[in-house]
From TrEMBL:
Residues 153-383 form the Sigma-54 factor interaction domain. The modification 4-aspartylphosphate is found at D57. It comes from Paralabilibaculum antarcticum. This is Sigma-54 dependent transcriptional regulator. Transmembrane segments: none annotated. It holds the Pfam family Sigma54_activat.
Amino acid sequence: MVSISNLRILILDDEQLVRDELSEFLIDPNFKIFKAGSPSEAFNIMEVNDIHIAIVDVNLPEMSGLDVLEKIKEDFPEIEVIMISGYSEMDSVIHAMRLGALDFFTKPFRLSEVESAIERTKKFIHLNKSLIEIKRNYSIITKEFYEAMGYEIIGDSPQMRNLINLISKVAKADNTSVLITGESGTGKELVARAIHYLSNRKDNCFYAVNCSAIPESLFESEFFGHTKGAFTGASDTKTGWFEAANDGTLFLDEIGDMQLNLQTKFLRVLEDRKIMKVGSNVEIPFDTRIIAATNQNIEGLHSEKGFRLDLYHRISSFVIHIDPLRERKEDIPLLLDYFVKYFNRVMGKNINEIDGAVIKRLLAYQFPGNVRELKNMVERAVIICDTNRLSLSHFQLSHPKEEQKKINFATDDNLDLELVEVDCIKKALERTNNNKSKAADLLNITWQSLDRRIKKYKIEM
C-alpha cells in the first residue's frame, strides 16, 4: 500500500508561478514533488519515476490538459490525476472527470482546496491498493475455481470435493446467509471469499470483520457508522461496515465471540435490513450478504456459549464445515507441493525435490494449526534450504504433547477396530458427562467428527 511517507506528486503547469506556489503548498517531508512546464517534460518524468498523483492544468502548450489526461490513463493507468481549471472551464472539468480524473481545484486556489484534493486522492489510492492486495491474498483455491478467481483450491480428499461442491452451490444463492465452521487455520475466510467471488456480488465489496476485536463502545459506530459530531471525537461522518459492504458481502469472523448484549442489536438489523447511523434518525436500507465463521462447535455456539438461538438461526441458513487437515491427510502432499512451488516463485528459488522422509513425517503429524501451520512450515523450510532438495532437517516439527490421561481403548482380547472406536467414544462421553465439545477435545477430533460417529454407531447418550 502507498503510505503518506512516500507519496510522489507531479505538478504540470506552464506557469512557473503556479508550479512554485503549488510546490510551496505541498512542502512536506511525506511528499516528493516533481515539476514540469510542458507535457513532454512531464512524460519524461513519468517514464523514470513512480508517480502517484499528477496535478495537470487544463490549458497547456503542446497538447491540452485533456489530451494529457487521456495519455496518462493509457500509458500510466496507475497514476491518479487532479485537474487545475479556471471558473470558466467547468465544462472541461466535467469532461476530464468522465475521462478518469479523480478530482480538481480551480484557480486562484487556496491551500485548503489543494490539501483536500490531495487527501481525497490519497484515500482513493489506499483503497484501490487494498482491493488489489485482497485479490492477491488467496493461497489455496482449486482448479474448479481458477477461471473465476485465478487461484486454486488444493485438495483431492472426499471432504475437499464436498466442500467445493457446497461452495459452488451456495454461491449461486447470493442472498442466503452462510455459517462456516472449522478449526483455526483451516481457511474459513478463504471459503467465504470463494463464495463471494463466485456469486453475482463478485464485482462489489467483500468486507471482513473480526467480531472478537470489536469493543462494545465502538460496536454501533463500526457496524452502522456515525454522523459528524455524533459524539466526542466524531470529527467526520463515518460509513459503517453494513453500508460499506452494500450489494456485496460482509464476512463476520469469530461470530461466536460477539458479546451477548450486542447480539440483540445485530439481530434487529439483520431482520429489518436497515441501519441508522449513530447521531442520525434516518434509516438506510442495505442489501448485504452475511457470511459468518466460528471455530466453536455448532451446538456449543448457542447452548454453551450464551449465543442467541434466534441470531444463530438467522446466520446459519446454510452451514459449511471445513474438516481439519489431520482428517484429510491425503491432501498434505498436494498442499506441500503447492506451497513449495509458491515460495519458489516468491523467493526466487528452484527447489524441485522433496525427500520422502519429509512427506512421511508430515503425514504422521497432527497439524493443530491446520493448513496455515503447514504453509508456515514450508515457508521456513524454503528459506533455510540452500539446495534444490528439501529434507527433514529443513522442517521444525513440534512434538505433540503427551496426554495426561490415555483412554485404554484396546485390549489383547479385542482388536475389532469398530468396537474399539465405539468403546473409545463411550468412555470419552462418560468422562465428560456427555459434553460433546469436551469429549471431542479429549479424543483429539472435531465436534462434527464426533457427532458423525455417534450417529453412525447409534451411540445412546
